[in-house]
Amino acid sequence: MDNIKKLPKDVKKIWRLSATFDFVIVLLVMAAFLFWYAAAPVGMKNTLMTISMIILAFGILDYIFELALVEYRWNFWTYYIDDRQVELHHGFFFRKQIIIPIARVQNVTLKQGPILRWKDLQKVNIVTAAGHSEISGLKTDEADNLKEIIMKLAREARNDI
Fold it and tell me: Where does the chain cross the membrane (predicted)?
């Protein structure tokens, strides 16, 4: 695995679905304000309607923004693994590069919720003493292979020290 890899295209569907779930939550919050509006005294009705419309406006803008960024996120999310380090890169305007020395890796965990399982994807969680980093949305066989490679390289790096 000595080359830069991208996440599979299926992760874009997961990100879109996540944005849709977030929007549904915003709609539920707005609905709660509207129920409150229906039972509120006349003096509060204008305030509650204004709050509901602000929540809806921000929710719609966030939803459109999240959907527009799916392609952007996918294009600029890459990872690279060699015998010395794991590198994670994402972002174009606000770039973030995470370098995890292989010798510092303590554990590699695979996570898969029902939505990721639906698309046969997993999250690879790389744990060090300083924290953890995640590669989200890898195919299951690729995630298993990646976990084995990272742990093998980590064992070898600890034996060399």
Answer: 21-39, 51-70
Q: In what order do the strands lie in the sheet with 85-90?
A: 5-6, 78-81, 85-90, 96-101
The verdict on domain 78-160 having CATH code 2.30.29.30 is yes
The phi and psi torsions of 78 (rounded to 5 degrees) equal -135, 165
Alpha-carbon Rg for the chain, nearest whole angstrom, is 21
Taking each helix axis from N to C terminus, what angle separates 42-75 and 10-39, rounded to the nearest 10 degrees?
Answer: 180
Per-domain residue ranges of the chain: 10-74, 78-160
pTM of the predicted model as reported, rounded to 2 decimal places: 0.81
**Could you read off the pLDDT of 84-143 as tens digits, one per residue?**
899 999 987 888 999 999 999 999 999 998 989 999 999 999 999 889 999 989 999 999
